[in-house]
Amino acid sequence: MYCPHCLAGTYSFKVNFRNRIIKVKVASNELTFELNGDNGISILVQGEAYELLPNTPLKVN
After folding, report:
1. What one-character DSSP code corresponds to residue 28?
2. What are the φ/ψ torsions at residue 28 (nearest 5 degrees)?
3. CB proximity list for 3: less than 8 A, separation 6 or greater
4. What is the dihedral of CA 30, 38, 21, 3, to 10 degrees?
5. Which residues form the Glycoside hydrolase family 65 C-terminal domain (predicted)?
6. Assign residue 6 a region: left if phi > 0, alpha if psi is -120 to 50, beta otherwise?
7. For residue 3, what pLDDT is reported?
8. For labelling, which of 15, 31, 38, 51 has a CA lying 20 to 30 Å from the CA of 45?
C-alpha cells in the first residue's frame, strides 16, 4: 500500500502495459502518471478508477 508519509524524496519508473509506456512518479504527497501512445486507458489507484489520457499527466493525491 502507498504510504506517502514513509517516503523521503521522489522516485520514478516506467511500465510497459499492453505495448504502451506509462511513466510513474512517486512523491511524498502525490503520484503522477503519464501515458505515451494514441489511446487512453482506465487505471485503478488505491481502488479508485481514473482515465489516463495520452500525453496528459494525471496527478493523484
Report:
1. S
2. -65, -25
3. none
4. 20
5. 10-52
6. alpha
7. 65
8. 38
Sign of CA dihedral 35, 40, 44, 45: positive
Pairing of strands 31-35, 41-45: unpaired
How far does Cα 16 stand from its chain's mean position? 12
Q: Are strands 20-26 and 48-52 parallel, antiparallel or unpaired?
A: unpaired
Give CA–CA dist 21/45, Å, rounded.
17
Identify residue 51 by its one-letter amino acid code: E
- Per residue in 3-37, pLDDT tens? 656 667 889 999 998 889 999 999 988 999 999 98
